[in-house]
Write a structure and sequence with these properties.
Length: 108
């Protein structure tokens, strides 16, 4: 499962990849294609756990997630980027439906 303390245990890295949303943070280690990091802060997705199930995209009532390409990643070659994490209403549905516990939402 995603480490809910990623903000303490990981460091933010600068990633210059047009595939990803500009204002979504990436928490390392980031070493593509195998290591893609945790994407997002309020709504965080561990890209190294996500296997592109898609339930989060289907169920989020405010469409926080969009697919992004991660070619060559061993789990899946697309991932759920929390592109619109600022729209999140903290319903926690995505956390509940993800089959591999790749998502952490911090209602703060
Ligand atoms: Fe969407 Fe709810 Fe998850 Fe926020 S907690 S990203 S609103 S499904
Ligand atoms: Fe990935 Fe889980 Fe969503 S596997 S696509 S974060 S439901």
């Amino acid at each position: 499962a995603i480490d809910a303390n990623f903000e303490t245990n990981r460091e933010r890295v600068e990633v210059d990849d047009d595939a990803f949303a500009d204002d979504v943070a990436v928490w390392g280690p980031y070493d593509p294609p195998e290591k893609q990091g945790i994407h997002g802060t309020h709504v965080a997705v561990d890209f190294d756990i996500c296997l592109a199930d898609g339930a989060c995209l289907e169920d989020c009532p405010v469409d926080v997630f969009t697919w992004v390409d991660t070619p060559g990643h061993p789990e899946s070659e697309i991932k759920a980027e929390p592109t619109h994490e600022d729209q999140c209403i903290d319903c926690m549905l995505c956390v509940d439906v993800c089959p591999v516990d790749a998502i952490d939402v911090d209602p703060g």
